[in-house]
C-alpha cells in the first residue's frame, strides 16, 4: 500500500508536467470511463486511473510503475472478458486519448492509435474507399487487445489475421524507451514479431501501421431462424461449406438460447457477408435465405427487385436498398434480408447475435413480441443507426442501472452482466461437429432459469484452409501455412457473482466435450495453439504459444529484464535467460 501511494504521488506530479494527461480517483466520471469494461465481471476497482495524453507521458508512467513495482493494467477498448487481464486493483492505464489515425495515400497504409475502437476505424477509412483487416464485432471492440492477440476477422478468408497485416508497431518499452519496430528494423525485428500475437508481454503498444485494401459495397444479411428449422439450418451450413469457395464469402452462425416466458428459447442467427458487390449470377447464401417462407423463397436475395430499384436511379446508400416484399406468414422475425450494404453496416450486423435479449415475460406490450423475441423495425433501426446508438451507449446503459450499487463498481460494465468467452480451435466443421454444437448449446440452456443465466451462445465460424498461407514467418502466435485453424466460440452470460463457479464449470465441460468430438471428427489436433483472445484464464500459456514459448521468453528477457510487465495480468510469458 505504501508503494502504490508513493507511485500515485509521482503520477500526480507527472500529470502537472504533461498537459493532456489526467489522473482520476474513484467517484469521478473519468475514473468510471477508464475502468469500465464490457462486462461487470471484467471491470475491477482500481486504486486510481490515469489517461496518458501522449506517448511521452505514457513512457514516464511506465517508469514510475517499474520503480515501485505496483500492480497495473492497460485498457484499450476494455472488451476482454477475463478479470484482471486489462483491469486491476492497482493503477489502471486507459489509452483512450491515444486515438489518432492517419491514412497515407502514397503507400496506402494507415496509422492507428492504440486507444481506437474498430467502429471508429471503419468510419475513418470509409471516405478513402479503403479498409483494414479488423475486429468483426460492432460492440466497441478495441484495436489494441484484438491486434495483440492475433485478430480473426470477416476479412481473414481473403487477407489472413490482423497480425499478418501489421507493418510497423510503436511501443513504449518497460524501461520507458519509445521505439518503432518493423520487419525492416534490424535492431527491433525480434520485438516486432514478438508483438504479432504476443499479448501485453513486451511493453505498451501505442500505434500500429496497417495495410489497407480497396473497399466496395458488400452484400449480406443477418438472418434468424427458430428451433423448428434447426436441422434445415445445420444442413444449409454443410451445403455452404461444400459449395462456397470464394474468399470474399464469410458466415458466422450462432446457436443462441435465451429465456422467453421463463423457458429456454433458441434463435439461430446466420450472419453472412460477401465482401464485394453481389455477383450477377451464383448469388451467395441462397441455401439460408431459401429457408424463409413467403417470397423470400422465390427470390431468396430479393435480387430482381433490387436490380430494378437501382436501375430506376433510386440508389443512394446501402441503407435505402430495401424494396418491399411479402413478409413471412408466421410470427417469427427472420431478421435482416440479403442486401447491398456498406462495411459500416456489416460491422453493425456482426454484433446482432451477441446482443443481450431481455427475458420475455409478457406479450402484452404496445409492440407485439414475436417468437424470436425481437421486433423487426427495432432491429433495422439498430443496424442502420448503429453509430448514433453507440455514441450514447455508455450514458444509456448507466441510466438503466441501479443508482446505488450494492458493492463497489457493480453495474459499471457496458453490459450489466457477468460472463466469459471460451473456445477450441478447429480446422473444419463436419455435420457431426455442428450437431454437437447445437446439442451442447441446448444442454446448457436447461440451466438458464435455475442459475441466473442470460444467454448460451455457441458459434460456427468456418474459415478457409489457406488463411495462414500469406502470413509472414516469425509471429509470436503460431500459425503455419496450410494449417488453417479458427476458434469455435462458447459464450455464456449470467447475472450474479454467486453463479460464477457454476457457469465456468459448465463452460469447461462444454468445451471438453466439443474438443472430444472435434478430435473424433478429424476437425482439430491435440497440439494446436489456443487463441489468446477467446481463451479462459486458466488455459496454460504453453497452450497459447506452444513451441514458440522459450524463444519468446528470451525476447522478453531482452526487453523487460526487470519484469515490469509481470505486474499486470494476461497470459504471461516467463522470462528466459540467455
Question: How would you characterize this protein structure?
Answer:
The protein has 578 residues and is an alpha+beta fold. It is built from 19 helices and 18 strands. The strands form 4 sheets. It has a 7-stranded antiparallel beta sheet with strand order 15-12-14-13-17-18-16, sandwiched between helices. A 5-stranded antiparallel beta sheet has the order 5-6-10-8-9. It has a 4-stranded mixed beta sheet with strand order 1-2-4-3, sandwiched between helices. About 12% of the residues have low confidence. GO terms for molecular function: FAD binding; oxidoreductase activity.
List the helices and strands and how they pair.
Elements: H1 2-17, E1 22-24, H2 29-35, E2 48-51, H3 55-68, E3 72-75, E4 91-94, E5 101-104, E6 109-113, H4 118-125, E7 130-131, H5 143-149, H6 156-159, E8 166-172, E9 178-182, H7 189-194, E10 204-211, E11 213-214, E12 218-226, H8 230-243, E13 249-260, E14 263-274, H9 286-289, H10 295-298, H11 303-311, E15 335-341, H12 343-349, H13 376-384, H14 386-391, H15 393-399, E16 418-426, H16 431-445, E17 453-460, E18 486-494, H17 500-520, H18 541-545, H19 549-559
Parallel strand pairs: 2-4, 3-4
Antiparallel strand pairs: 1-2, 5-6, 6-10, 7-11, 8-9, 8-10, 12-14, 12-15, 13-14, 13-17, 16-18, 17-18
Amino acid at each position: 500500500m505504501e508503494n502504490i501511494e508513493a507511485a500515485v504521488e509521482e503520477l500526480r506530479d507527472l500529470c502537472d508536467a504533461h498537459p493532456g494527461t489526467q489522473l482520476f480517483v474513484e467517484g469521478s466520471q473519468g475514473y468510471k470511463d477508464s475502468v469500465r469494461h464490457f462486462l461487470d465481471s471484467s471491470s475491477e476497482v482500481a486504486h486510481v486511473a490515469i489517461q496518458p495524453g501522449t506517448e511521452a507521458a505514457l513512457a514516464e508512467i511506465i517508469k514510475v510503475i517499474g520503480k515501485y513495482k505496483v500492480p497495473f493494467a492497460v485498457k484499450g477498448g476494455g472488451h476482454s472478458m477475463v478479470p484482471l487481464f486489462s483491469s486491476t486493483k492497482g493503477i489502471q492505464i486507459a489509452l483512450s486519448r491515444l486515438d489518432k489515425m492517419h491514412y497515407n495515400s502514397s503507400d496506402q497504409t494507415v496509422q492507428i492509435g492504440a486507444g481506437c475502437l474498430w467502429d471508429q476505424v471503419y468510419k475513418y477509412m470509409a471516405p478513402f474507399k479503403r479498409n483494414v483487416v479488423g475486429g468483426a464485432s460492432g460492440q466497441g471492440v478495441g484495436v489494441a487487445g484484438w491486434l495483440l492477440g492475433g485478430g480473426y476477422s470477416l476479412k481473414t478468408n481473403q487477407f489472413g489475421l490482423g497480425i499478418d497485416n501489421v507493418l510497423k508497431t510503436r511501443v513504449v518499452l518497460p524501461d520507458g524507451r519509445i521505439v518503432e519496430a518493423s520487419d525492416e528494423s534490424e535492431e527491433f525485428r525480434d520485438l516486432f514479431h514478438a508483438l504479432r500475437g504476443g499479448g501485453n508481454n513486451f511493453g505498451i503498444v501505442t500505434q500500429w501501421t496497417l495495410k489497407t485494401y480497396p473497399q466496395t459495397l458488400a452484400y449480406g444479411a443477418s438472418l434468424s431462424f427458430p428451433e423448428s428449422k434447426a436441422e434445415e439450418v445445420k444442413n444449409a451450413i454443410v451445403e455452404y461449406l461444400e459449395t462456397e469457395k470464394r474468399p470474399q464469402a464469410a458466415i458466422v452462425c450462432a446457436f443462441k438460447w435465451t429465456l422467453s416466458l421463463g423457458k429456454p428459447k433458441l434463435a439461430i442467427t446466420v450472419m453472412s457477408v460477401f465482401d464485394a458487390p453481389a455477383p450477377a449470377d451464383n448469388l451467395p447464401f441462397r441455401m439460408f435465405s431459401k429457408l424463409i417462407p413467403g417470397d423470400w423463397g422465390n427470390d431468396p436475395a430479393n435480387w430482381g427487385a433490387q436490380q430494378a430499384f437501382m436501375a430506376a436511379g433510386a440508389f443512394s446508400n446501402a441503407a435505402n436498398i430495401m424494396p418491399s416484399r411479402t413478409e413471412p406468414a408466421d410470427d417469427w422475425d427472420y431478421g435482416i434480408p440479403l442486401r447491398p450494404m456498406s462495411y459500416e453496416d456489416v460491422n453493425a450486423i456482426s454484433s446482432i447475435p451477441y446482443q443481450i435479449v431481455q427475458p420475455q415475460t409478457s406479450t402484452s406490450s404496445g409492440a407485439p413480441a414475436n417468437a424470436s423475441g425481437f421486433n423487426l423495425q427495432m432491429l433495422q433501426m439498430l443496424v442502420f443507426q448503429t453509430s448514433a446508438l453507440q455514441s450514447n451507449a455508455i450514458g444509456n446503459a448507466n441510466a438503466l442501472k441501479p443508482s446505488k450499487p450494492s458493492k463497489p463498481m457493480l453495474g459499471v460494465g457496458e453490459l450489466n452482466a457477468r460472463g466469459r468467452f471460451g473456445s477450441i480451435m478447429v480446422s473444419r466443421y463436419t455435420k457431426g461437429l455442428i450437431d454437437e454444437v447445437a446439442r451442447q448449446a441446448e444442454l446448457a440452456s436447461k440451466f438458464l432459469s435455475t442459475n441466473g443465466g442470460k444467454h448460451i451462445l455457441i458459434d460456427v465460424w468456418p474459415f478457409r484452409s489457406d488463411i495462414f498461407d500469406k502470413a509472414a514467418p516469425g509471429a509470436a502466435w503460431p500459425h503455419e501455412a496450410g494449417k488453417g485453424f479458427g476458434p469455435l466460440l462458447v459464450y455464456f452470460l449470467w447475472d450474479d457473482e454467486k453463479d460464477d463457479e457454476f457457469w465456468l464449470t459448465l463452460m469447461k465441460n462444454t468445451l471438453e466435450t466439443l474438443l472430444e468430438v472435434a478430435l473424433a471428427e478429424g476437425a482439430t489436433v491435440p497440439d494446436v495453439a489456443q487463441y489468446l483472445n477467446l481463451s479462459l484464464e486458466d488455459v496454460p500459456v504453453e497452450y497459447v504459444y506452444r513451441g514458440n514459448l522459450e524463444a519468446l521468453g528470451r525476447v522478453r528477457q531482452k526487453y523487460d529484464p526487470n519484469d515490469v510487465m509481470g505486474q499486470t495480468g494476461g497470459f504471461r510469458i516467463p522470462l528466459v535467460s540467455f
